[in-house]
Amino acid sequence: MKVAVIGFSQSGKTSLYRAASRGQAKGDVTAVPVPDVRFDTIVAQVKPKKQTPATVILHDDLEPVQGGAQKMFSQRFLDEARKADVYLHVVRAFESPTAPYHDDVDPKRDLEAVDVEMIVTDLGVVENRLERLKKSMNVKTSGHPDQQEQNLFTRIKEPLENGTPMRDMEFDEEELKIVRNYQFLSAKPTVLAFNVGEDEAAEPGPKVAALIAEQKAKGTQAFAVCATIEEEIAQLDAADQPEFLESLGLKEPASHRVVQAIYDALGLITFFTAGENDTRAWPLRRGSTALKAAATIHNDIAKGFIRAEVVHYADYLEHGSLDAAYKANKMHLEGKEAVIQDGDLLHIRNKS
Ligand SMILES: Nc1nc2c(ncn2[C@@H]2O[C@H](COP(=O)(O)OP(=O)(O)O)[C@@H](O)[C@H]2O)c(=O)[nH]1
Ligand SMILES: [Mg+2]
């Protein structure tokens, strides 16, 4: 899961990156564990030799978005941004006399500038492709992959011209494959972090609150954060954090909110394998089958799949251990096509 931190220079990307990695980040790419009380509960009960939480990989190695007269996206930015699975877009909402391009605070303007540039970049790709297809199309019959592409690109050209990012458009499975293949910028799931000043750390002002509401209504994950305060919190001992958070009127550290929002934006759920040697949490796309879960663990386990032993998390919690849940007949024996639910504990019976 590649999470690209994007935004203008001095919007607070690196500050939030450090906060989100809870001060653990060494370089500019780091794996951040997904906070999950269910995982902590399982680990405390199983007491495995090793525990492996689910992680997301944060990348703070992209070039900043450029403002002014320059090209906003450098080629290096584009190369990296296209490879990302999801964007963590940091938008400045704090006073900064040293910020380049603009010295006033206007998160709406900054957000829209990046969105528009993404849309324009994608539109360029779409138009180019349509031009080429027009030339080659006459010899191709309907049902040809090129025909599908032409239909799709013709359809999305207008909404793009009207400023709709592809992430706000509807696609079927086949179309999604094409969209993913082209690595369109505006199609990527996006998490918006409005980086507010210290005075708004507990509660954003009306402007940012309205922007957040607007984005949420469109299904985009968005929240306010004060990156500098969060960076300080991340450096405290874990035991001292709750009191400090509370004194600021915060419920949880930014690292939790950032990672949870990314997880949600990607449509991920978590399943667990509660091994005595290694207890692990695994990310999985919502709606995935037992076979897909098996493949997430290891391709060989998927190949030799016989049955999945599934215990729902609520049943595990009620009975206090897997043993007790099994004895209470709470284990469901499932085939390859069974849909895995968030929090399921799995054991895959397999031939390997
Ligand atoms: N007041 C305030 N300053 C911030 C905040 N976040 C970042 N800064 C400051 O803005 C400057 C740029 O931050 P940085 O994280 O390096 O931005 P980047 O260029 O986007 O990586 C630094 O001096 C930070 O201390 C914030 O939430 N509030
Ligand atoms: Mg930086």
Question: What does this protein look like?
Answer:
- The chain has a six-stranded mixed β-sheet, sandwiched between helices. A three-stranded mixed β-sheet has the order 3-9-8, with helices on both faces.
- Strand 8 and strand 9 (278-285) form a beta hairpin.
- With 352 residues, the chain is α/β, with parallel strands linked by helices.
- Helix 1 packs parallel to helix 8 (227-235) and helix 4 packs antiparallel against helix 5 (145-161).
- Helices cover 43% and strands 20% of the residues.
- It has two domains: 2-265, Rossmann fold, CATH 3.40.50; 287-350, Beta-grasp domain (Ubiquitin-like (UB roll)).
- Magnesium ion binds at residues 13-14.
Quick tags:
Ubiquitin-like (UB roll); Rossmann fold; 352 residues; 3-stranded mixed sheet; binds guanosine-5'-diphosphate; single chain; binds magnesium ion; alpha/beta; 6-stranded mixed sheet
Helix-strand layout with pairing:
Layout: E1 2-6, H1 13-20, E2 29-33, H2 37-46, E3 50-52, E4 55-59, H3 75-83, E5 86-93, H4 107-136, H5 145-161, H6 173-182, E6 190-196, H7 206-217, E7 221-225, H8 227-235, H9 241-247, H10 254-265, E8 268-274, E9 278-285, H11 290-297, H12 299-303, E10 305-311, H13 313-319, H14 322-327, E11 332-334, E12 345-350
Parallel strand pairs: 1-4, 1-5, 3-9, 5-6, 6-7
Antiparallel strand pairs: 2-4, 8-9, 10-11, 10-12
Helix pairs in contact: 1-8, 4-5
Bound molecules: guanosine-5'-diphosphate (GDP) and magnesium ion.
Overall strand count: 12
Q: Calculate Rg over CA atoms.
A: 23 Å
What oligomeric state best describes the polypeptide chains here?
single chain
List the ions, cofactors and other small molecules found in this model. guanosine-5'-diphosphate, magnesium ion
Order of helices and strands: EHEHEEHEHHHEHEHHHEEHHEHHEE
Q: Uncertain runs with pLDDT below 50, 5 residues or more?
A: none
Percent helix, as a range, is 40-55%
The CATH homology group name of the largest domain: P-loop containing nucleotide triphosphate hydrolases
| Number of separate domains | 2
How far the N terminus sits from the C terminus, by CA atoms, comes to 27 Å
In DSSP terms, counting alpha (H) and pi (I) runs of 4 or more, how many helices? 14
Under CATH at level 1, the class of the largest domain stands as Alpha Beta
What is the architecture of the largest domain at the second tier of CATH? 3-Layer(aba) Sandwich
**Global geometry:** flat
| Structural class by secondary-structure content | alpha/beta
CATH topology of the largest domain: Rossmann fold
